[in-house]
């Protein structure tokens, strides 16, 4: 069985509907869904704000690469179009594999360019770390330490302050 943390975000179209559809398409694999946060765009600020959340997913038969393939299929189902000139540009839905743990609860580490684990920039993204703490207050990002410590770093202070919780937009797992 593998367990994974997935980050989901949307800033085009019906953002909340895109997040809900990601949860629906992942089905019973979704064990927990974080609260939804409205966040400023990251990396490319000339775009609308995002809605972001984090999911804890489990699947007895999933290999780490399976999570990536599911993420890409869900993005495609929601009309995600990648613009090679805007790596961090707007999107209907973004699903990132943040971290994966194997059957023995050991973190999966990978430097494969197709699926780098843990996600190579997760440690610097408040929009990933803060929702993750909703799910797992004692979470650790493999190779980087406690999520709480990462989130409290001075480098992320402004990003955390800019996040707005959206309790009016709940996500619910089907499990």
Percent strand equals 25-35%
CATH homologous superfamily assignment: 7,8-Dihydro-6-hydroxymethylpterin-pyrophosphokinase HPPK
**What Rg is obtained from the alpha carbons, in whole angstroms?**
15 Å
Secondary structural class: alpha+beta
Number of helices: 5
Tell me the series of helices and strands, N- to C-terminal.
EHEEEHEEEHEEHHE
Kindly report the CATH topology: Alpha-Beta Plaits
Q: How many DSSP E strands?
A: 10
Characterization of this structure:
The chain has 175 residues and is an alpha+beta fold. It has one domain: Alpha-Beta Plaits (2-Layer Sandwich). It has five helices and ten strands, in the order βαβββαβββαββααβ. The protein has helices spanning 15-26, 64-77, 126-135, 147-151, 157-161; strands at residues 2-10, 30-33, 37-39, 50-59, 94-101, 110-112, 115-117, 140-141, 145-146, 164-165. It starts with a strand and ends in a 10-residue tail after the last strand.
């Amino acid at each position: 069985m593998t367990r994974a943390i997935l980050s989901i975000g949307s800033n085009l179209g019906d953002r909340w509907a895109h997040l809900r559809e990601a949860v629906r398409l992942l089905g019973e694999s979704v064990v927990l869904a974080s609260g939804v946060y409205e966040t400023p765009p990251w990396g490319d600020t000339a775009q609308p704000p995002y809605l972001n959340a984090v999911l804890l997913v489990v699947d007895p038969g999933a290999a780490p690469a399976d999570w990536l393939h599911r993420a890409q299929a869900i993005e495609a189902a929601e009309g995600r179009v990648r613009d090679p000139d805007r790596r961090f540009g707007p999107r209907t839905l973004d699903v990132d594999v943040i971290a994966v743990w194997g059957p023995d609860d050991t973190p999966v580490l990978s430097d494969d360019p197709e699926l780098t684990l843990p996600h190579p920039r997760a440690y610097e993204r408040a929009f990933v770390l803060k929702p993750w703490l909703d799910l797992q207050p004692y979470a650790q990002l493999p190779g980087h330490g406690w999520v709480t410590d990462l989130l409290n770093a001075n480098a992320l202070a402004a990003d955390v302050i800019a996040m707005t919780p959206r309790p009016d937009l709940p996500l619910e797992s089907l499990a």
